[in-house]
Amino acid sequence: MLKPLIIPVIHHRDLETTLAEAKLAIECDADGVMLISHAGKDEELLEVAGAAQRASRLFPVGVNLLSMSAIDAAKRAQELGLSWVWADAMGVTSRGLDEMGQQLQDFARVHPQMTLFAGVAFKYQEPEPDPVEAAHQARLAGFVPTTSGAATGQAPDIEKIRSMGRSGVLAIASGMTPENVGSYAPFLTHVFVATGVGRTEYHIDPAKLSRLVKVAREAALEGADIYGLMADMMASSLTGRMMGFSREELIARFKASQPNAMAFRQLVLKSLADAKAAMVSRADGAQFAGPVIDLTALKH
Questions:
Q1: Do 231 and 201 share a structural domain?
Q2: Residue 33 in contact with residue 45, Cβ under 8 Å?
Q3: Are 189 and 252 part of one and the same domain?
Q4: At residue 13, does pLDDT exceed 60?
Q5: Dihedral (C-alpha) 44, 50, 52, 56: value to the nearest 10 degrees?
Q6: CB atoms within 10 A of CB 216
Q7: CA angle, 29 as apex, 25 and 30 as ends, to 5°?
Q8: pLDDT at 101 over 90
Q9: Among residues 114, 125, 64, which one has the least CA distance to residue 92?
């Protein structure tokens, strides 16, 4: 799947509103949703998250449970079959892991299907003297380092993001808008967004979210090795494995069938949207296999 993944953060108000907003996120071509309650309704939030995950099995649902420790939140989310857990403090800094971090590292090893987003160099937490090393320590523990600006709605310095994202996965959780996400997207694997695409505290503005998704994906493809990117995606898919081509063979065949790289980028963007729509509409549990592109030319 094309990175960065765009993940709207839905502020929970009630069951009906939160489920409707999750459905809207799907329609806007987001890559999943993260649910959070600022009113202390974490038990209710878990019920809603479970219902959302059951209703859209192929669409990742995560939670940030503010009233629980990160390890308790991870255990509760795992019981419900949720995809993601995010916590501002997961016990990881540039100094390494504390006791909580070690427990979560063990949890991540036992439950590799769940992604843990760990706040590092994060707003309202203890100042981090070495964000790059903190991100490195989070990755070593099996977490996705997740950073932010100085406050809610504030984007971090782009050089901070560039340096933190240079060596692997990195999520951002503040300040992203349709206007600035293109500058940050090449250095990120995940974008959490709320204020930047919100109509109200509890409602997504679909026009803003759709535009942010479009801008982020275009920025991710701009200047990228589109043939190598597509070869990697295809090689990891069921279709690619059945075809039996190596990465180098796929690159050569993509170039032969689509010699214009710019036109190929546009085809990939359109095909990604088509594939996501097909994936969301299916109910048989099949996994996303990458862009739906005519592969006839690759078989000869």
A1: no
A2: no
A3: no
A4: yes
A5: 180
A6: 26
A7: 55
A8: yes
A9: 125
pLDDT of the residue at 176: 97
What is the residue range of 144's domain?
A: 5-221
Does the structure show a pLDDT above 60 at 118?
A: yes
Q: Which of 202, 221, 240 is the last residue of a domain?
A: 221
Last residue of a domain, one of 221, 249, 277: 221
Are the beta carbons of 68 and 79 closer than 8 angstroms?
no
Give me the percent of the chain exceeding a pLDDT of 70: 85
pTM metric for this prediction:
0.80
